[in-house]
C-alpha cells in the first residue's frame, strides 16, 4: 500500500493516530480539573508503567486537556544529573504565561518569585554572571522561595503561583515525565509541596509519569505519599483497544486488517502500544493491498523485529557495561527457566535466581544490579525480585545471546 499514506507512528512520546484504551484516564482527569478549579479537594496524579505503554503520550494528552480547560501548564523531564529548580522554573514560567492574568503587577510578582527560586540554584553568594536566568524580565523577589531549602522554597513558589491561578478561577498543572529520576531531596520537597497546596485548597496539580517502581520512590520519601497521589497503572492494551488502535487509522485511509491479521498482530505485539505502531507501520508498507492479512504480518514481522532490535531494545542494551549486560542476560535466562503458568507479564525473577545462573554470590552482583536500576533498565517491584522496564526485553536478549 501507499507508504505516504501510512498512518502509524512509532516514536518516543509520539501520539498515535488513535489513542485507544485511555478513555477512562482522560475522563477522570477532566473531572479532576473541574473539581480543583471549583476549590474541591483532589490529589495530584502519578502514571506508572513499563516503557512502551504510552505514558508520555498520555501525559501529553492530559496536558492538552488542561490547556483546553484554560489552565496554565508546564512540562519537564526529570534527569538523574539535574536538580529540580531550573526545569521547574521554566515549566512554571510557561504555566503563568498561559494563564493570561490581567493584572500585570500580580503576574510580575509571581514571575519574580520564580526567578528568585531559579537563581538560588547557583548558591546564595554566587556572582550575577553565574546565576541562571530563566528568561524572566521581572526583577527577582528577595525573601521569597530563595532560602536554599528546596522544601520551603517549593511550597512558597507553588503557593504564590496557585494564588494567581485562583484569582482567575482556573488552575496550574505541572507535568513531570520520568519522575523516578528526580533527586531524592527534590522528591521529598515535591511531596511536601503537594501536601501543603492540597491542604490550602490551591488550584495546583502535579501530574507525574514514571516506571513501575515510582510509587516506592515516593513512599520512601514521604510516608503519606500513598494518600497524596492518585496512582494509575498504565498497562498494555486489551484486545478490543489494540484492534481499534490498528483498525481506526487504517479505515481513515480506506484500508483494514482482516480478523486473522488482527489475531497475528496481537500475538506479536502483546498489546503494547509502541509495538502496535511499529508492527503496524511495517505491515502497511509490505501489504500489497487491503485487507492486510495474516500472511502480510508474517512477511512484516522480521523487519519490525529488526527495527525494534536496533531502536527500542538495542539502544538500551548498549547503555549497559559488559558486567551489566551479563546480569541482564542472566535475568533473561532465569526467567526462561520459570514455568509458563508461574511467569508473570514482566518476567520478574528472584535476585537469587540471577546469582544462581551466574554461579556467583548475590552480594557480589549488587553493583551491577544497582547500576541497572539507576539507568532505568530494570526495577524492583517487590523485595528480592527484579524485572525489566522494557517489555519483551528478555525475549530479545535470548535471541541475541
Automatic annotation (TrEMBL):
Protein's UniProt keywords contain NADP: no
Name of the featured protein: Cytochrome c domain-containing protein
Signal sequence, start to end: none
GO MF annotation, one: heme binding
Domain Cytochrome c residues, every copy: 166-354
Keywords recorded for this protein, A-Z: Heme, Iron, Metal-binding
Coiled coil start-end: none
Pfam families reported in the protein's UniProt record: AAA_16 (PF13191)
Transmembrane segments: none
Keyword Heme in record: yes
Region annotated Disordered, chain positions: 1-23
Amino acid at each position: 500500500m501507499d507508504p505516504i499514506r501510512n498512518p502509524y507512528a512509532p516514536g518516543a512520546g509520539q501520539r498515535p493516530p488513535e489513542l485507544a484504551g485511555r478513555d477512562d484516564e482522560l475522563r477522570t482527569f477532566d473531572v479532576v480539573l473541574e473539581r480543583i478549579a471549583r476549590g474541591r479537594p483532589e490529589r495530584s496524579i502519578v502514571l506508572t508503567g513499563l516503557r512502551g505503554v504510552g505514558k508520555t503520550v498520555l501525559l501529553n494528552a492530559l496536558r492538552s486537556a488542561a490547556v483546553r480547560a484554560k489552565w496554565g501548564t508546564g512540562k519537564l523531564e526529570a534527569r538523574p544529573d539535574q536538580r529540580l529548580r531550573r526545569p521547574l522554573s521554566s515549566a512554571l514560567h510557561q504555566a503563568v504565561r498561559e494563564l493570561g492574568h490581567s493584572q500585570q503587577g500580580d503576574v510580575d510578582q509571581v514571575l519574580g518569585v520564580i526567578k528568585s527560586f531559579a537563581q538560588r540554584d547557583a548558591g546564595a553568594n554566587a556572582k550575577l554572571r553565574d546565576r541562571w536566568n530563566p528568561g524572566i524580565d521581572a526583577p527577582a523577589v528577595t525573601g521569597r522561595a530563595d532560602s536554599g531549602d528546596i522544601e520551603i522554597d517549593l511550597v512558597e513558589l507553588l503557593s504564590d503561583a496557585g494564588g494567581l491561578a485562583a484569582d482567575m478561577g482556573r488552575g496550574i498543572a505541572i507535568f513531570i515525565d520520568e519522575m523516578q529520576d528526580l533527586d531524592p531531596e527534590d522528591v521529598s520537597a515535591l511531596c511536601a509541596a503537594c501536601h501543603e497546596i492540597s491542604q490550602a485548597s490551591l488550584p495546583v496539580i502535579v501530574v507525574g509519569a514514571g516506571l513501575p517502581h515510582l510509587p516506592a520512590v515516593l513512599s520512601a520519601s514521604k510516608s503519606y505519599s500513598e494518600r497524596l497521589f492518585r496512582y494509575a497503572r498504565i498497562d498494555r492494551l486489551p484486545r478490543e483497544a489494540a484492534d481499534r488502535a490498528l483498525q481506526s487509522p487504517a479505515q481513515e485511509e480506506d484500508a483494514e486488517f482482516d480478523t486473522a491479521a488482527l489475531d497475528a498482530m496481537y500475538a506479536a505485539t502483546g498489546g503494547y502500544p509502541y509495538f502496535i505502531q511499529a508492527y503496524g507501520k511495517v505491515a502497511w508498507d509490505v501489504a500489497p493491498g487491503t485487507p492486510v492479512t495474516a500472511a502480510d504480518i508474517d512477511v512484516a514481522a522480521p523487519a519490525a523485529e529488526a527495527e525494534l532490535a536496533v531502536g527500542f531494545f538495542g539502544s538500551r542494551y548498549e547503555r549497559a557495561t559488559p558486567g551489566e549486560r551479563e546480569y541482564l542476560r542472566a535475568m533473561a535466562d532465569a526467567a526462561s527457566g520459570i514455568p509458563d503458568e508461574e511467569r508473570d507479564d514482566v518476567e520478574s525473577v528472584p535476585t537469587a535466581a540471577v546469582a544462581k545462573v551466574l554461579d556467583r554470590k548475590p552480594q557480589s552482583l549488587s553493583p551491577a544490579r544497582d547500576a541497572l536500576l539507576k539507568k532505568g533498565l530494570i526495577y524492583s517491584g517487590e523485595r528480592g525480585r527484579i524485572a525489566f522496564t522494557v517489555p519483551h526485553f528478555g525475549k530479545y536478549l535470548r535471541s541475541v545471546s
